[in-house]
Fold:
Amino acid sequence: DLILFNLKATAMTLVARRLNVPALPTALQPVTARTRAFPVPLFGLPNLGPGLNAMSYGFFRRLMSAGIAPVLKSLKHDAQAELAQSGSLMDGHLPPGGRPLNLQAFSKALVPNPGDWSAEVWQSGYWFTEPDPSYRPPPDLAAFLEGGPPPVYLGFGSMPSRDPDGLTGTILSALRTTGQRAILATGWGGLTAAALDESMAKQIHLLDKAPHSWLFPRCSGVVHHGGAGTTHEALRWGKPSLVCPVFADQPFWGARVHRIGAGPAPIRQKKLTTENLARALKDLEMPTFRDGAERAARLMASEPGAKGTADQLARYQMRYPASFPRQAG
Structure:
């Protein structure tokens, strides 16, 4: 009855044309809707000025078209009618014609509506999952959290480091300098489970994994790579963040966190040193950054989110009932 797709699946527009159902683009980063306010946030570009900012989105669309061209070539014979229809695959499909709803699943706390988005662009806030009430932490994690003041969390998720041992050593050295309690998440290759000497055993807890929605409320601050999900999750709980980006949209989110006063200026992961990380870790304790993060949390709590998006789609169904031919009730 309805297809929601992201930028890695724009061929779903062809499926929607074949089935004659709506296909709505969804984005966790502001990349599908052109604006003059900032350039497409996937290449670490600075503000290019209104004209060039807007042009960067056209360049990005051409890159996307080139990327999907091999797929479309293989479909050329079987999907002639769908390929012949006008309109960009990135914009989806609406059976009555016109441009379908364009879902922007990120918070206005980080990206205020720029004012020049077209009418079909709808910003819902991030699609958070709710904390699992049945989750129970491993005993060693629970004991560490209960054994002192809230720690700072450091983890880079799925972002691999060129030198995991060196990165881990830099973090441990910075924590020796600051004396802060910390949870060090080893992730999928960003950090190593380095052996800690006895002097740091009570200061640092090595963690394989734990739900962010459970752990972040129990931390004092969050150091992370700047993925859209981790960035929003940290601010959701009012936690100041230090973003250490690697590529893609991560520098954009790091700059946004700093811009709204919810954390220090980002430091690219490859430029981390004992000195600049120790300084940033101490800066995370500044009340101004905590205040900025808490302001963001209050705004996020008021946004539609996942449930509000479901309600919006129900209203959309009422507006275009012919677009949902098999929907019952």
About this structure: DSSP finds eleven helices and nine strands in the chain.
